[in-house]
Amino acid sequence: MNLVKVKCTFCGKEFFRSKGRFNEAKKFGWKQCCSPRCLSKNRTKKQVLFCENCGKRFSRVPNDISPHNYCSQSCAAIANNKKCLKGHAKIKPKLKTCVKCGKQFRKSTGNRKYCSMKCRGGAEPKYTRQKLINAIKQKVQGLQRTPARREMKESKTCQKIFGSWNNAIIAAGFQPNRSHNQRMYRCVNAKATDGHICDSVSELIIDNWLTKNRIPHEKNIPYPETNHKADWAIFVEGEKIFIEYFGLANDSPRYDRAIREKKNICRKYGLKLIEIYPQDLYPKMKLDVKLGNRLSGCPNLHRN
Hints:
The protein folds into four domains: 3-64, no CATH class; 94-124, no CATH class; 129-177; 190-290, 3-Layer(aba) Sandwich (Endonuclease, Chain A), CATH 3.40.960. It has ten helices and twelve strands. It has helices spanning 19-28, 36-43, 73-89, 117-122, 129-143, 155-162, 165-171, 201-212, 253-269, 287-290; strands at residues 3-7, 14-18, 47-50, 57-60, 95-97, 104-106, 190-191, 197-198, 217-222, 229-236, 239-245, 272-276. The strands form five sheets. Strands 9-10-11-12 form a four-stranded mixed sheet, sandwiched between helices. A two-stranded antiparallel sheet has the order 1-2. The chain has a two-stranded antiparallel sheet with strand order 3-4. α6 (155-162) crosses α7. Residues 180-186 have low confidence and may be disordered.
């Protein structure tokens, strides 16, 4: 058999091939490789490149080749960061003065006032335990009752410093209102100015409003042919009107079911019902609008 020495198209290694196969490949323009491995690698369209950051050799298909090529995302990030730093070096950084020590430091995002944690820790905080206690006492003096958490803008700070809103109220020397865990299980009784016992501070506010506006009212009036009771009942021009404070609406399935049952009873017997919700009391009391317009026919309604 006649053999011909051939040079591998891929790796350049010389090898022997039969003359017939050599002539056939030359006739059809086929590439000749020394092994199946070189033949497979020779068929790929990947091109050999060198990383612009570390100089490492790697291969990439023509569609993925760009003006700047890197062997990995890490090398690309390093090279791009170097370019960004060169651009930022031309820009003069903005400086701020530390309110504690007077040292200048580079301004960053946010509203930083101190150059370091040491200066920040040594500075007097905006709120202290005593300042928060004084704020709660001042609020109680204005409301003449224990405030709800949503009635004080410092409530979140109280939670951070005291652990919870109720702990802050106790530290100030007052009795906390009913918490979420206590809902639908027990009530915190509060006595209104007319002597009525209310199940919550919110009911206390409504009862005192009725008393202040000289509207005669009765507490816990039963609905017809049921065990349900209305929070209040008043008489306007000889007509009985029920008033309900639905403080836990959308908070308990059992409570929502009771609301629906009370509304159905009022429709069945043609009773008038005034519904009051937490948004009518907090953060701003709207009883003058909610009840005042509905009770405009009441002869005893008092306006300041």
